[in-house]
From TrEMBL:
Highest taxon, organism lineage: Eukaryota
Amidohydrolase-related domain boundaries: 19-304
UniProt protein name: Amidohydrolase-related domain-containing protein
The organism of origin for this protein: Prorocentrum cordatum
Family, as annotated: Belongs to the metallo-dependent hydrolases superfamily.
Pfam families membership: Amidohydro_2
Length: 306
C-alpha cells in the first residue's frame, strides 16, 4: 500500500531456524501457577498465554522460529516456574530450549545459592536447560541509578557466575550508565541487556540513552536484545535500533520477540522482527550477519546445542 512504512509490510527473507531469545508463558487462568503481573495489566493481558498460542502467533508471520528461550515472568513461586519450564525444555516436542529463571540476585549470594539448590538434580548438578537469571530492577527494592553496582547485588552476581550462569539486565534506561562498571567486574561472565535497556522510557531519550548504550557496547561480555519495541514509547524506533547495532555490532545483538507482551499491546509477532531486519539491512548486514543476529549469537550467549 502506498505510503505504508517498511516495518508494516511482511518480510519473507528472514534466516532459517530463527531462535527467539525472549518469550513469556502463563497459565494463570486455567489452573496453572498464579501470575502476579499480567492479570493486573490492561484487559488485553488477561488471558492464558501458552506455548500453543505462541506457535499460532509465529505461524501467522514470516519469521519462522525453530526454538525459543523462556525468560521469567512472575509466575509464582519462582522455583516452581523454573520447574515448569524445565519440563518443557526436557520435552523434545517443545519449542522452548532454555530459560532464565527469576532469581533474586539483588538479595545476595545466599539467595542465589538457596534457589539453585532447589533445582539441583539427584547427582547435584544443575539442569542443563537453566542458562541464567533475571529479576527486573524496576520490581526490585533498590531502583537507584547505581543499583547495579550495589555490593549485595555484586555478591549475588559472583555466586551466579560461579555456576556458569548468565545475568539478564532488565532496567529503566536511567540505570544503564552504571552497567559498564558492573560487568567489568566479571569479565568471564556473560551478560545480556534486555529490550535495549529501554523499558519504561525513563531516561530513554536518545541524548541520555545513546551514550550509555555506546559505553555498554564496548564491554565484550555483553549482548543486547533487540526487541520490546512496543514498550519504548518513542516514535523513532529505527534510530534506537541503528544506534544499538552500531554499538554492539552483528556479533552481539540478539533477536527477541518479547511475546506475549507484544501481542497484548497490539503488535503482530513479526513487528519487531521486521524492524530488526530492516535495521540490519541499513547497517549493511550480509546473510552471514543475519544468521548470527537471528540464530548464531543466541547459540553462543545461551550455550545451546540444537
Amino acid at each position: 500500500m502506498a505510503g505504508e512504512s517498511a516495518s508494516m509490510r511482511p518480510r519473507s527473507d528472514f534466516p532459517a531456524d530463527v531462535i527467539d531469545t525472549h518469550i513469556h508463558l502463563s497459565r494463570h487462568y486455567s489452573g496453572g501457577l498464579k501470575n502476579e503481573w499480567h492479570p493486573d495489566e490492561t484487559e488485553s493481558f488477561r488471558r492464558d498465554w501458552t506455548e500453543e498460542d505462541y506457535l499460532a502467533s509465529v505461524a501467522k508471520g514470516s519469521c519462522k522460529v525453530k526454538a525459543a528461550v523462556f525468560v521469567e515472568c512472575f509466575n509464582r513461586p519462582p522455583v516452581e516456574e523454573a520447574r515448569w519450564v524445565l519440563k518443557m525444555i526436557d520435552d523434545p516436542n517443545s519449542v522452548v530450549v532454555a530459560m532464565s529463571a527469576q532469581i533474586s540476585v539483588q538479595k545476595g549470594a545466599a539467595a542465589v545459592a538457596e534457589f539453585l539448590d532447589e533445582l539441583r538434580e539427584a547427582d547435584g548438578a544443575l539442569p542443563t536447560g537453566l542458562k541464567g537469571a533475571r529479576m527486573v530492577f524496576p520490581a526490585a527494592e533498590n531502583k537507584a541509578p547505581d543499583c547495579c553496582i550495589e555490593p549485595r547485588f555484586l555478591e549475588g552476581l559472583a555466586e551466579l557466575g560461579k555456576h556458569g550462569l548468565l545475568w539478564e539486565f532488565c532496567v529503566h534506561p536511567y540505570m544503564a550508565p552504571c552497567i559498564p562498571e558492573c560487568v567489568s567486574k566479571f569479565p568471564d561472565m556473560t551478560f545480556i541487556v534486555d529490550h535495549l535497556a529501554h523499558n519504561g522510557n525513563e531516561g530513554g531519550a536518545m541524548e541520555a540513552w545513546g551514550p550509555a548504550i555506546d559505553a555498554i557496547g564496548k564491554c565484550p561480555n555483553v549482548y543486547c536484545k533487540m526487541g520490546a519495541s512496543e514498550e519504548w514509547g518513542v516514535t523513532n524506533k529505527s534510530e534506537y535500533m541503528d544506534r544499538a547495532i552500531a554499538a554492539f555490532g552483528f556479533d552481539r545483538i540478539l533477536y527477541e520477540s518479547n511475546w506475549f507482551v507484544n501481542e497484548a499491546m497490539g503488535d503482530s509477532y513479526d513487528t519487531t522482527a521486521n524492524l530488526l531486519l530492516e535495521a540490519c539491512d541499513r547497517a549493511g548486514a550480509t546473510a552471514e550477519d543475519l544468521a548470527k543476529v537471528f540464530r548464531g549469537n543466541a547459540m553462543k550467549a545461551y550455550r545451546l546445542e540444537i
